[in-house]
Write a structure and sequence with these properties.
mainly alpha
Amino acid sequence: MTNQLPENQTEKTELTDQNKNKSKKGKLTLAITAGAVAGGIAVMATPSARNKVKEKSSSTRNSVSQYVADVKADPSGAKNDLMQRIQKTASITKEALNKIQNILDEQGKDIKEKVEDVTEESQDIVSTAKEAGEELKDVGEKVKEAKEELTDSGKDEAAASSEAGKKDDDNDTDHTITKTPIN
């Protein structure tokens, strides 16, 4: 059996969750508003800040008023002026994009050439390393042959000297030590 809430209780739970979400949003909005008001009060507390805000708002109001007056006086002229500004901005932007594209194309070619050079040099290095490896292998084989030759000739000399030593032993005098002197 699973624990299921009656329909009434489920609806109450959903309403409670919705109320919690709304209260969280309401608290956030209240906190933001309180912060903005506190910031405004803090800014307006100093006389220099108040004067600066007055000057900026006054100049903004004057420029907006002048623009509205210009538009009312000559709507088509204002429209043409705005269109010219937009077209000039668009052409400047297009020109800048073209310059960027040209730079990227030139740099792309340079980068491509450098990558090709690096690739060729890498292939040369790899082939040189392979050749050196083959030559070292040949040298290793020659060293091995020389070692075998030395080992074989050393064995031959040892065998020859041991045979010669056996023959010499037969012809040599007796080297026994006695207590009596020899005359």
